[in-house]
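Changelog-linked ticket: adenosine-5'-triphosphate example.
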Amino acid sequence: MRIIGTVGLPGSGKGEAAAVAREEDIPVVTMGDVIRAETRRRGLDPTENHGEIAGKLREEEGETAIADRCIPMVREAAEDQSGEPVVLVDGLRSMAEVERFVDAFGEDFLLVSIEAPFDLRAKRLGARGREATDLDREKLREREERELGFGMGEVIDAADLTIHNDDSLEAFREQVRAVLEAGADAVDEQHAGGEHE
Ligand SMILES: Nc1ncnc2c1ncn2[C@@H]1O[C@H](COP(=O)(O)OP(=O)(O)OP(=O)(O)O)[C@@H](O)[C@H]1O
């Protein structure tokens, strides 16, 4: 079994990595979806109250509230597969969450950091234009600081391997496919990264 967790600042390419997994029929558990579902359950608007509910869940149920809800979903997605199961978990944000996944899956859990410089992420998000914040560099900075406040910087530093997403989209997708197929072994073969510059 291989459980691949991704971490990355806004616009780094996590959604794109999840799209590659889906194309390969690899199930994706999106931590943000768990928060969106909870926001809706509380009768609130997921586009406006997402950050607030993420914080509330952690306050009410502890730091691993979101990871705790994801783990049974990951197990179920793995059990549904024949052969060697692979599941992608999109969007880990704190070391408490990482530790929860390591407790649950041990060596089968691989933490992958997706990295790109701020200007490139701002440009790509501007082109994506999915949310109002995509077009606003200041809002991007604010979002980034909030994420780092949850401890994302430590998670990035703790990653087992790094994919540098500073080339073409096709080059990035190729690296993601290699990691999905071979896990950490993909790094030596594909030069998918691993060293911080
Ligand atoms: N190497 C690349 N070249 C060009 N465009 C890219 C590249 N990587 C990602 N993109 C595009 O940049 C945008 C941001 O990527 P993506 O949506 O995957 O980021 P994300 O990490 O999921 O961001 P967020 O956390 O803000 O949702 C998307 O439109 C994606 O298609």
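Closing comment: Example verified and attached. Confidence is low (pLDDT under 50) at residues 192-197. Residues 46-61 form the longest helix (16 residues).
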